[in-house]
Amino acid sequence: MEDDKALNFAIPVRIYYEDTDAGGVVYYANYLRYMERARTEWLRALGFEQDRLIANEGVIFAVRSARLEFVKPARFNDVLNVGVRVAARGGASLTFAQTIVREGATVCEGEVRVACLDAKTFAPRALPAALAQRLEEST
């Protein structure tokens, strides 16, 4: 695994008919779904599965805030590149800068802050030590 995966990561997402609205463009809320998928795959590429984090560490991740800027419309059958970059790290949170690009042109960009929570109480918890270490090694 390359060391920069914690810093820069991307997945392709194809747009299906079900992703579009009456105007034939991607429904705005779907961009959040694509960003979520990319963050999940980013975590997986680092060696962490969310179901195992719940079972073994007792933690879950929840979106605390999201800010999106819609730049250009995406349409049916487009292939988008959904990027993830850790912009900031707190003791119990990660802030991601995310971009969605089509053929080199930005379609949507945003910032998503995710909190690490105790799976039973939903109280903030420190990032799991192995994940924090992996992030530290990558910077």
Automatic annotation (TrEMBL):
GO terms for molecular function: fatty acyl-CoA hydrolase activity. Belongs to the 4-hydroxybenzoyl-CoA thioesterase family. It comes from the Bacteria. It comes from Sulfurifustis variabilis. The lineage of its organism: Bacteria, Pseudomonadati, Pseudomonadota, Gammaproteobacteria, Acidiferrobacterales. Gene3D superfamilies: Hotdog Thioesterase. Keywords: Hydrolase. The keyword Hydrolase applies. This is 4-hydroxybenzoyl-CoA thioesterase. SUPFAM superfamilies: Thioesterase/thiol ester dehydrase-isomerase. InterPro entries: 4-hydroxybenzoyl-CoA_TE (IPR050563), HotDog_dom_sf (IPR029069), Tol-Pal_acyl-CoA_thioesterase (IPR014166), YbgC/YbaW (IPR006684).
